[in-house]
Predict the 3D structure of the following.
Amino acid sequence: MRIAIGISGLFRSKLCINPVNSVKKIVNRFNADLYCHTWSGLESEVPDIFKKEGMFFTTPEPTINYHPLLDPDATTNPKHLYYRKNEVNKEQNKFANKQIIGYSNLYDKIPKKYDIYIRTRWDVMINPKFNFEKFYSLLTQGPVGFMIRESGPNYFPFRKKEGRIVPKVKSKTKNNDWHDMLSDYLIMHKEEHIDTKKIYDLHDKKQLLGSEFGWWQVLSKSSGGDGHTSVYGGVILVRRKRKIMLDENFKLRRVFVN
């Protein structure tokens, strides 16, 4: 099984855990080749260990002159419609589709010789004991995305070795994590799931959605919109001002810092 991992976005060196070790754990867990990307002018932020020739790339940062959650009208997801109606987190999410453009830029550079492509971020940490292999077979239906909810009705603990598939149902509740959205902390996909030319065209037409809605739009919608799988478990985001630690039993501990 040949696997390529594509990591893109901003490398935030001031995270509360060592992001270099986190990336190494991801690569070792999947026994994969690593390809990296950031925006032109920000390459000095990325440690030299990730700048291998032919495996590290930069491209110009795109200009986003529309709001990727409020302007395009491309889903019936109740959470997305709620955002559009109430303009929730308008400033926070105004660049939410840059991650999709950045990964597309990187994917264009990755040799097309792999069985599985994995998209993730610099600020993701995985549980190395999690059973990701269980979900490889689902890639025949569509892309598979992973995340956890740290609170609320969809809470799922990071330390669990087995994931929980989000029910593939369409409903009007904003707690639905599958309907017209793809969990995006870490996404597995096949070559046939992505068409970067269509992604750039959506952006040019100011129709590229952001966040989970955008990943669904570019990886699932074109093939019917229902073949994707979202999974709780395996990954967590390492955000600033929160120190995330795992003990020897992979139990999650949080310490908030100033």
The longest strand covers residues 33-39. The helical segments are 19-30, 78-86, 98-109, 196-204, 211-219. The chain is about 20% helix and 20% strand.
